[in-house]
Design brief:
Blueprint (H helix, E strand, L loop, with lengths): L2 E2 L1 H6 L5 E4 L11 H7 L5 E3 L19 H10 L8 E4 L7 H10 L7 E4 L2 H7 L25 E2 L1 H10 L3 E4 L3 H4 L19 E2 L15 H11 L7 E4 L6 H11 L7 E2 L2 H5 L5
Helix pairs in contact: 4-9, 8-9
């Protein structure tokens, strides 16, 4: 199950490993780690989306090597057979990117889930929070990459004419259509040719939970050609693409989440 409810997590707090994967856009002027220090779900560990990405890349949130992922996750004290629940306190549902990363690096998809509604719903329901940091005992996590879950810029370019897969962009329609400047420096406005727009927040309710399966299925059916099975998700920097990937996995349980890792931050990059 890709999602768990706040009720389920409250009943299983001591049986799972919990990660706070909050991340905020720079223009939000919010510090995810400081917010974690102030309050978080009891027993949770902070997962730094930036620091666990490829630090040698000039693009945001790129997948690191399997060795680096193994080291980073071992430093969080997680093991390959842990039942992991990820949540966030973010407007862009960054927990979904963490969920995708674990599956990409070989964690059993049945053992990693996102908390539906995140910290916002948890707090609104008056469930317990803490400001205590969990003691961490280093582990020996072993990652194994599934490269079929990621597309490169070269593959995206080839697909424009070959149409081997269907690209859905999670950004807002204004950004997709190039009506507003891109929030990142040296990135032009616009979108990948022959891609389609599905803003991620169209799948999310006001309380930050996902819409029901019938609604999600109808949204995808209106956009995706009949019998199209090969979906690739993109966005600004590979975060909200994973919101679409998780949502689609809810209505197509055989789907293997696949994203364009560089997303528009790479495709729209202006040569300096």
């Amino acid at each position: 199950m890709s999602l768990v409810s706040t009720e389920w997590l409250e009943q299983n707090l001591k049986n799972v490993k919990i990660l706070d994967a909050s991340w905020h856009m720079a223009n939000m002027n919010r510090n995810a780690y400081k917010e974690y220090e102030e309050h978080h779900i009891p027993n949770s560990i902070f997962f730094d989306l930036d620091k666990t990405s490829d630090l040698n890349s000039d693009l945001p949130h790129m997948l690191s090597s399997s060795d680096m992922w193994s080291k980073n996750i071992s430093n969080l004290g997680l093991s390959n057979n842990d039942r992991i629940i990820v949540y966030d306190n973010s407007d862009v549902l960054s927990a979904c990117r963490c969920w995708y990363n674990f599956i990409y690096y070989g964690h059993d998809p049945k053992l990693v889930s996102v908390l539906d509604g995140g910290l916002k719903k948890w707090i609104n329901e008056n469930k317990p929070t803490s400001n205590e940091k969990m003691p961490i005992n280093k582990s020996n996590y072993k990652a194994s990459e599934n490269r079929q879950m990621v597309k490169s810029k070269k593959e995206i370019d080839l697909n424009i004419n070959e149409k081997q897969f269907f690209v859905l962009d999670a950004r807002s329609k204004d950004r997709f259509e190039g009506k507003v400047p891109d929030p990142r420096k040296n990135v032009r406005s616009g979108s990948i040719p022959n891609s389609y727009c599905l803003p991620f927040n169209e799948l999310i309710k006001n309380d930050k939970t996902f819409k029901n399966l019938e609604e999600i299925n109808n949204i995808f059916e209106q956009l995706i050609p009949k019998n199209e099975k090969n979906l690739v998700f993109s966005c600004g920097s590979g975060v909200t693409a994973c919101v679409l990937a998780l949502a689609y996995s809810l209505v197509n349980t055989t789907y293997v989440p696949t994203i364009y890792d560089g997303s528009w931050a790479e495709y729209g990059k202006v040569a300096s």
